[in-house]
Every structure is written in C-alpha cells, then in structure tokens.
Amino acid sequence: MSRRPPGGARRPASARVDYEQHGRTYTRHRRADPRIASRIHAALGDAHTVLNVGAGTGSYEPRDRWVLAVEPSATMRAQRPPGAAPAIAARAEALPLDENSVDAAMACVTIHHWWDRARGLAELRRVARGPVVIFTFELERLPEWQRQYLHEGLVEELPRFPALDTVATALGGRTRVERIATPGDCSDGFFEAFWRRPERLLDPAVRSAQSMWALLEEGAERRIVERLSASLASGEWDEQHGHLRAMDSFDGALALVISEPG
Ligand SMILES: C[S@@+](CC[C@H](N)C(=O)[O-])C[C@H]1O[C@@H](n2cnc3c(N)ncnc32)[C@H](O)[C@@H]1O
C-alpha cells in the first residue's frame, strides 16, 4: 500500500507509527474493554448498519448489527478474529462509500494516526446518516504520575491528539462529548489503562502494543522504564500515588465525541 497520503503530500508526524510493523502483537494486549464497548454501542443509538474506520483487529465492533470495517494495515486486518465483520483496505481520508450509506460510523483510538484528520472526520460525517462516534483521549487528563514519568513520550504524543472541540468542529452536525472513566482492570492496554497498575508498563510486551514508544528517540524508552522501575522498587511511587491502587476507576483521558446530523 502506498505511504503517500491523499493528495501526494509527505507523510506527516501524526502518521509515524507503521501498523504493518507495529501492529504484530496488538491482539495480545489490546482487547476491547466491555465497559467502554457498552458506552460506544449506546452512542451508536439504534443504528443497524455501522462503519468502523481504523478498525484494526475489530475491538469495539458491535456483534449484533451489520458492520463494515475500514483498515489500511494488512497486519491488523490479518488479526481480525474468525466471524469478525469484513474489512476493506482503505483510509479514513477517502472512504469508498456513498453519502449517507450507513446508519452510523465509529472510529476508536485511531484519529491520532490519520494523515489528514479534518478530511477523515468529514468523510465519516459524509457517509453516515446518523451518529458518528469518535473514541479518543484527552492526554492532559492522564493521571499525574503518567504525565510525569512518560513525559518524553507525551511530548511526542500531544501534537498528534487534537483537542476535543477541534474534533467536534471537524465533524460538524450537533456534537457532544461524553467522558468514560477508565476501569482499574481495563482490558484494553493503552497506557492510561494501567493508571493503578504501573508495574505493567515495565513489561516490554505491554509496551509493544502501545504506539507511543515507537515515536521515541533512541534510549528514551529505556530511561522511562528505568525511572519507573526504580521508583516502584524504592517505594517512592506508592508513597506518592499509592492511593490510586484502592480506586475502582479513574476519571481521566477517555472521551467520546459524538456527532448527530445537524
Ligand atoms: C491503535 S489502532 C486502533 C484499532 C481499533 N480501532 C481499536 O480500537 O483497537 C489504530 C488503527 O488506525 C489505523 N489507521 C492508521 N491510519 C489510518 C487512516 N488514515 N485511516 C484509517 N485507519 C488508520 C491503523 O492501521 C490501526 O489499525
């Protein structure tokens, strides 16, 4: 597949993670969390036909509706489980569908990877007759210890994540934002999932299913891991943040931006 974005421009920083390489271990540590899934499915309303863009391995796709997936990476498409919805090789920025051809469209944990976000979001709005549901993160709301320990990574990540009102404006229609608390035992291993389980980030297999690490300069991942590991071993982390271990969920970065036709 061509690495050139639509229009032939150079690949922007937002598209630096190559899922043909990076996505190989995705299914092991990135399984849809049922509590997050139920919020996404509720936001889809009574839609019978749903387009899932940047669908990856199929996380968060409803099983009780007709679904078509759009996913540019063959590595990710190959990890879709038996019985998952069919997936076509395309990108958000140029959806091969007619206007108003599906009841609803969704995009989960993907817009920060798109070459042209505004164009992709407008495409979702164009093809959906009903709601468009975007599941994304507001990184400023990550737990304080993650903003502290993952600083080098977040410097790279922050420019990739648009503000929620920018997403809403690009979608158009009638928009609203819904927050989702991150469960303490969240099964989808994005980094906020480990807000009360910091040890899990020391596992290279967990990190390999998180795109942030692929953005770091040489040596930065080792420095972050050593810092966190030392702080856990000395008890410093627990002294400062140990109260988190007793909490069930964290009101942090997870958000849905939902657009209904205007
Ligand atoms: C973090 S994964 C999320 C996959 C899935 N939605 C989930 O929630 O697990 C990001 C996905 O976005 C896809 N992607 C990257 N650029 C894209 C684009 N321009 N249009 C559509 N999908 C894209 C990647 O190939 C990858 O599968």
Describe the structure.
- The structure is a single chain.
- The strands form two sheets. Strands 3-2-1-4-5-9-6 form a seven-stranded mixed β-sheet, covered by helices on one side. The chain has a two-stranded antiparallel sheet with strand order 7-8.
- The protein has eleven helices and nine strands.
- Strand 4 (104-108), helix 5 (117-127) and strand 5 (132-137) form a beta-alpha-beta unit.
- The chain is of the alpha/beta class and 262 residues long.
- It has one domain: Rossmann fold (3-Layer(aba) Sandwich).
- S-adenosylmethionine (SAM) binds next to loops.
Count up the helices: 11
Q: Could you name the CATH class?
A: Alpha Beta
Shape descriptor reads: globular
Q: Helix content range of the residues, please?
A: 25-40%
Q: Are any ligands bound, and if so which?
A: S-adenosylmethionine
For the secondary structure, the number of strands is 9
Largest sheet, in brief, is: 7 strands, mixed
List the secondary-structure elements in sequence, H or E: HHHEEHEEHEHHHEEHHHEE
Distance between the terminal alpha carbons, to the nearest Å? Answer: 35 Å
CATH arch. level architecture: 3-Layer(aba) Sandwich
- What integer is the average pLDDT? 92
